[in-house]
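Severity: low
Component: inverse-folding endpoint
Summary: output formatting inconsistent between runs
Steps to reproduce: submit the following structure tokens with default settings.
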């Protein structure tokens, strides 16, 4: 595998900063699912391509499951041990008694509200249909939080419908077909359309409006957290080092995006590198507290048992904090 990777790219020895501890010599397979093929998944792919999972003593097996809810079900069924998906999916499951806990995060997805090019203002969006992914998904709650900030009430000013489609690029396709009038899209989706000569109207930026999504929080089962703490710690070390390598080696990041997202245009690669590895993906994989608290508040309308609950009940950040106390992040970033 190392020989094969040498053909993929050249990387300085300094990029791999730590020798694998002897305690991690015996490798165990940890299957990690991710709920969308987007730039925020870069650390998972970099860690795989560079052999960082193996370096820290686990065999990281990546699988794509195109739904946060389905990912949680796979976690509870034991076919995966770690999921990277919307934090709302984990909170909703936990609210119903599932032993699911959020342990880290790969950051928010940089969403924008876009519409067919004929809709050039928020006023023109009134009476139109906005498509989310699924009821209870991260994009669904993000829209429900965003629209009132824009002066639009779902069910009154606009119709909000679930499309059943998690991937924002596929939602754009049905939007351009006229089946919906607007949806959420990533900045990369929008740039890709522009490069193809296709125009859309960008009506709002979620981050600028203070709407933080939990599109790539990392969750596991409480049992796995208790019984396989070493493996989870190795996983977090691997993806955190992957963030460091990706940030410091743009060409490597480009190669990873080309391989896993089939992206070739240098302008799109630059956008993804800037918006994710240098943007929304954190250097330390702590979840964003306000995003998770928003999820809990949003979900409480569907699950009354969530009213008044706090994020500490649905998270276990002990491994991330342990890595920080041991100086792992300081050694990695030199500060």
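Observed output (run 2 of 3):
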């Amino acid at each position: 595998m190392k020989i094969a990777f040498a053909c993929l790219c050249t990387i300085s020895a300094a990029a791999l900063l730590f020798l694998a501890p002897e305690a991690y010599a015996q490798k165990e397979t940890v299957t990690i699912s991710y709920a969308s093929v987007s730039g925020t998944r870069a650390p998972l792919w970099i860690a795989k391509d560079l052999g960082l999972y193996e370096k820290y003593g686990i065999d990281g097996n990546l699988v794509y499951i195109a739904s946060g809810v389905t990912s949680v079900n796979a976690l509870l069924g034991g076919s995966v041990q770690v999921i990277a998906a919307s934090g709302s999916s984990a909170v909703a499951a936990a609210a119903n008694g599932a032993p699911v806990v959020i342990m880290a995060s790969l950051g928010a997805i940089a969403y924008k509200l876009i519409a067919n090019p004929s809709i050039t203002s928020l006023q023109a969006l009134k009476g139109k249909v906005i498509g989310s992914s699924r009821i209870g998904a991260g994009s669904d709650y993000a829209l429900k939080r965003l629209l009132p900030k824009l002066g639009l009430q779902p069910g009154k000013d606009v119709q909000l419908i679930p499309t059943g489609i998690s991937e924002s690029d596929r939602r754009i396709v049905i939007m351009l077909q006229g089946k919906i009038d607007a949806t959420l899209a990533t900045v990369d989706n929008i740039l890709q359309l522009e490069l193809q000569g296709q125009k859309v109207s960008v009506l709002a930026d979620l981050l600028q409006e203070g709407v933080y999504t939990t599109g790539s929080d990392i969750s596991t089962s409480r049992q796995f957290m208790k019984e396989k703490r070493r493996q989870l710690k190795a996983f977090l070390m691997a993806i955190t080092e992957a963030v460091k390598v990706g940030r410091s080696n743009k060409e490597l990041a480009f190669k990873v995006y080309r391989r896993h997202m089939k992206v070739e245009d240098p302008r799109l690669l630059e956008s993804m590198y800037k918006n994710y590895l240098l943007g929304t993906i954190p250097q330390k994989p702590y979840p964003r507290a306000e995003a998770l608290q928003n999820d809990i508040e949003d979900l409480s309308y569907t699950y009354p048992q969530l009213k008044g609950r706090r994020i500490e009940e649905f998270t276990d950040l002990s491994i991330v904090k342990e890595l920080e106390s041991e100086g792992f992040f300081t050694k990695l970033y030199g500060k």
